[in-house]
């Protein structure tokens, strides 16, 4: 089983214990274990196979190690199954609704007998929540909204989760004798922020047993369909995977077709029609007489309609066909353009690694610079720094910097934007920093006008360099706060501030279309991971994917610049 699947089991345990009012330390130890496991760069399964003692991993003790070994050898966790037998199945689902924590879920169950999303919806509609302690009319409205949102996102998975399963599954299928070519298509290949399912295409030799092997994959929960050319399974995590076996001569046409998006395909096919051609998943044909022209390579499709290759990330029918026609396609940014990372946290606040450990990893990645940007004091849950704490931390950054050659460690902070738009730390300490990120971490439910005024006021502070995660959304979990983004973008331009594309896979904030808007209005961007561990510095790729979907080029992004040029922008 993948690390992610094992982590999900520990999260499920923690959720149930939490609702049952279990010992908070125990709950936390399961949650921490889940997080640790998700962050591991090596698979637990391979560690167990090589005989490594898992208790050497920080945060993993005897009881969790035993459970991991059980899960790896049996695919199941007995303890979780026991817990599940004690609570209604729908109850833990309630935790997935925005704004509902274990305490509220428990209260709803005890006082109203609510133990599923459907029942909660009925109770809210019937006005039965408003009389509970700590709830009211507003709660009912909010609950109904979160239910609506939950249902809309149901069955979708974050791109990063798709990556975990896609990589493992592709590795597995590659080993099957007779598989000649293998690759992802669909929204995964377009790097959309969430995927509905995973689409995989293959070319196989005659007699290849790829479908047998696919449907016998270790994490299959259900075989939805099994055929010679198409099979679908559902993994234990709920993700559906489709595999299609194609003919070599039509691989390109099928790859284009199944990469989508549907709207892009329609735009290409309309163009083909005007040229007297027909394009489908089997190839390019003449409309008259059905003579086949090409289709083995994906380039064939674009060539047939007189266009240059359009990268998958742009295929959303958002003007890419017209841009291609006019020779105006952007030269999209690539991961290799990135020279450093401008947001990360360390053990000084809620990160897992020291400054030196972050720097080691950055060096290994070939970066020229990183900025250490821990939280400020208003973010209490993260142990944010006050002026004194930051002063000491900046000194430490300097010291570590002097120990590294070829990597510049910039002194920074992620300072909180308080409710009134003032900053959480005094100007004289902010002046000491090379990089100041400003961000909203509280009071998300302000009115749009108030939130916009709050952020714009913060941007006026001349010490602020970058507006971090500008809209505050968490994918599939929390909507962006209400804010007039155009006004914010205009303000960053006016005050010389950079907008962040936060690469952390739960955030991807700015999102693709907003990054594009920012670029079109003339703003500059930074792509930063917000890493809370050294391993998470690798998450940069998700920020780059988002930028590419936003038509962003290397020249729009400040952390593609060499150090000296970057320093000029940061002043
Ligand atoms: P998803 O899975 O919801 O994240 O989105 P996609 O884009 O991966 O959609 P999916 O898996 O239903 O189908 C994969 C691709 O196949 C889709 O992007 C375009 C193509 N496709 C599927 N159904 C149709 C269709 O009815 N018409 C056209 N033109 N293309 C289709
Ligand atoms: Ca799909
Ligand atoms: Ca599909
Ligand atoms: Zn933040």
Would you kindly provide a written description of the structure presented here, covering whatever features stand out?
The chain is an alpha/beta fold. It folds into four domains: 3-138, DNA polymerase, domain 1, CATH 1.10.150.110; 157-245, Beta Polymerase, domain 2; 250-325, Beta Polymerase, domain 3; 335-570, Metal-dependent hydrolases (TIM Barrel, Alpha-Beta Barrel). The protein contains 24 helices and 17 strands. Strands 11-12-13-14-15-16-17 form a seven-stranded parallel β-sheet. A five-stranded mixed β-sheet has the order 2-4-7-6-5, sandwiched between helices. Strands 8-9-10 form a three-stranded antiparallel β-sheet. The protein binds 2'-deoxyguanosine-5'-triphosphate, calcium ion (2 copies) and zinc ion (ZN). The site of one calcium ion has 6 residues, from helix 11. The site of one calcium ion (CA) has 6 residues, from helix 11.
């Amino acid at each position: 089983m993948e690390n992610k699947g094992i982590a999900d089991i520990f999260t499920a345990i923690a959720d149930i214990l939490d609702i049952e009012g279990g010992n908070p330390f125990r709950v936390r130890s399961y949650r921490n274990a889940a997080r640790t496991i998700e962050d591991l760069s090596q698979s637990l399964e391979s560690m167990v196979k090589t005989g490594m003692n898992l208790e050497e991993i920080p945060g993993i003790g005897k009881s969790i190690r035993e459970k991991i070994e059980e899960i790896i050898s049996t695919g199941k966790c007995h303890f979780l199954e026991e817990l599940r037998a004690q609570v209604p199945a729908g109850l833990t689902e309630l935790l997935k609704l925005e704004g509902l924590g274990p305490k509220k879920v428990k209260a709803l169950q005890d006082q109203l007998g609510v133990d599923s999303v459907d029942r909660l919806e009925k109770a809210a509609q019937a006005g039965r929540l408003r009389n509970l302690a700590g709830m009211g009319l507003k709660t009912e409205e909010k609950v109904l909204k979160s239910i609506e949102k939950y249902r809309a996102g149901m069955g979708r998975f974050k791109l990063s989760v798709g990556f975990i399963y896609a990589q493992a599954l592709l590795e597995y299928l590659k080993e099957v004798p007779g598989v000649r070519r293998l690759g992802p298509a669909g929204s995964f290949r377009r790097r959309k922020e969430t995927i509905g399912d995973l689409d995989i295409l293959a070319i196989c030799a005659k007699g290849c047993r790829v479908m047998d092997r696919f449907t016998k994959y270790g994490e299959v929960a259900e075989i939805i369909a099994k055929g010679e050319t198409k099979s679908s399974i559902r993994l234990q995590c709920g993700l559906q995977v489709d595999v299609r076996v194609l003919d070599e001569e039509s691989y390109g046409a099928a790859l284009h077709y199944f990469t989508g998006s549907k709207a892009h395909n329609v735009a290409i096919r309309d163009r083909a029609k005007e040229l007297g051609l027909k394009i489908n998943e089997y190839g390019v044909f003449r409309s008259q007489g059905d003579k086949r022209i090409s289709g083995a390579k994906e380039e064939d499709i674009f060539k047939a309609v007189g266009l240059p290759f359009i990268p998958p990330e742009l295929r959303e029918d958002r003007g890419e066909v017209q841009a291609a026609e006019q020779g105006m396609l952007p030269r999209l940014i690539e991961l290799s353009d990135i020279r450093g990372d401008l947001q990360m946290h360390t053990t000084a606040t809620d990160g897992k690694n020291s400054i030196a450990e972050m720097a080691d990893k950055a060096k290994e990645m070939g970066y020229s610079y990183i900025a250490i940007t821990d939280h400020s004091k208003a973010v209490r849950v993260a142990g944010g720094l006050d002026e004194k704490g930051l002063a000491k931390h900046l000194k430490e950054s300097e010291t570590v910097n002097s120990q590294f050659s070829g990597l510049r460690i910039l002194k920074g902070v992620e300072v909180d934007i308080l409710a009134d738009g003032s900053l959480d730390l005094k100007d004289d300490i902010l002046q000491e920093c090379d990089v100041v990120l400003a961000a909203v971490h509280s009071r998300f439910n302000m009115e749009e006008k108030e939130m916009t005024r709050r952020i714009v006021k913060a941007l006026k502070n001349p010490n602020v360099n970058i507006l971090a995660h500008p809209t505050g959304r968490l994918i599939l979990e929390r909507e962006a706060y209400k804010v007039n983004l155009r006004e914010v973008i205009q303000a960053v331009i006016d005050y010389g501030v950079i907008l962040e594309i936060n690469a952390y896979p739960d955030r991807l904030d700015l999102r693709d279309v907003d990054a594009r808007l920012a670029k079109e209005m003339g703003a500059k961007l930074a792509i930063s991971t917000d890493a809370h561990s050294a391993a998470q510095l690798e998450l940069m790729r998700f920020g780059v994917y988002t930028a590419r979907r936003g038509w962003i080029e290397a020249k729009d992004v400040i952390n593609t610049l060499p150090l000296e040029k970057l320093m000029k922008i940061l002043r």
